[in-house]
Amino acid sequence: MAPSSYDGSSLFNFVVRDGNGVKGMVDLGLSKVPEPYIQPPKERIDKEKATRHEQAPIDFSRLNGPEHDEVFKEIVTAAETLGFFQLVNHGVPVDLLESLKDAAHKFFGQPSEKKAVYRKDVSPSPLVKYGTSFVPEKEKALEWKDYISMVYTSDAEALEQWPKECREVVLEYLKTSMNMVKKLLEILMGNLEAELDDSKIDALIGMKMVNMNFYPTCPNPDLTVGVGRHSDMGTLTILLQDGIGGLYVKVAEEIDNIGKQGEWVEIPPIPGALVINIGDALQILSNGRYKSAEHRVRTTSTKSRVSIPIFTAPKPTEKIAPLPQVVEKDGMAYYKEFVFADYMKNFFGNAHDGKKSLDFAQINSA
Fold first, then answer.
1. Residue 80 sits in a domain of what CATH number?
2. How many domains does the chain have?
3. Which of 278, 361, 277 is nearest to 321 (CA)?
4. CA distance 175 to 77
5. How far is CA 67 from the centre of its chain?
6. Residues near 361 by beta carbon (within 8 Å), at least 6 away in sequence
7. CA spacing 20 to 30 A to 202: which of 33, 208, 263, 349?
8. Which residues form the Fe2OG dioxygenase domain (predicted)?
9. pTM exceeds 0.85
10. Rounded to an integer, what distance in angstroms lies between the CA atom of residue 366 and that of residue 352?
11. Helix (H), strand (E) at residue 208
């Protein structure tokens, strides 16, 4: 039976509960977008109205030479304004990034039953989860995305429990990215006059998770979203996108040469680059100096797209609050102290809705 002829509940069961995902639905043949995936007009992405982020990527290798201070400033400025920037010469081999994209296509190209073994309630490992959309049970319209999520605890557990189709290359990606992540944190925290030792770095990025996202071709991208408006909950996100594009970031406050407040800017794919974005935890720690970027993903009708983010975040047991030295300068704290596990529970308990997740931590000024 063609998926477009399913009613809402049978389609939901097929895609979500049975683990066929959006890809399983698309593979059956689709001439139009099924009703549960049609977004309300205000959530749709108008490609014509968005501008392209034309700023050159930051060459991370310049950090080790005479241009160190300039690179430092470029990174801090990006974190304080758009909350997104691209890095080249970041230390992660480009051929590894290509292998990673191939591994994502290989994993999602498997029959549904091979992927469905990792569904939330049946996965053989608490570290691995296969799913679709974000919180499908709570969403008014579903997102056009399937994903596999892999939590890192140790090399041994990753190699034992992550899916065999991708575990080695994903682990290599995670491990080779960490030097870059630590350098970025040293810059961003150093700018706030916070000293970092290994234990403090571990407190900020003690939780690490790699996702592989798959956005199948869509008959009408104008009606759907691959991912709805949201900011990431953690510290820093490192994203590998393929050459297809579709990532959009909202301009929080007017930025020269980038866009006006409220505009959406497309982050174009750059060969060999990694996209870095600030998460909510870093916005809170900086008392709002750094901006967690609200972003979303458009679907495509021409070719299936993959992206592979590394999410770094504080350990669930960590207490998070604005840094005392920043509060002292600002004269007040804009966010309360909380245990990060509580923030996670709130974040994963609701559908994507812009930066609303930050309300959990906000101190009401009224």
1. 2.60.120.330
2. 1
3. 361
4. 27
5. 30
6. 280, 284, 320, 335, 336, 338, 343
7. 349
8. 200-314
9. yes
10. 26
11. strand 207-215
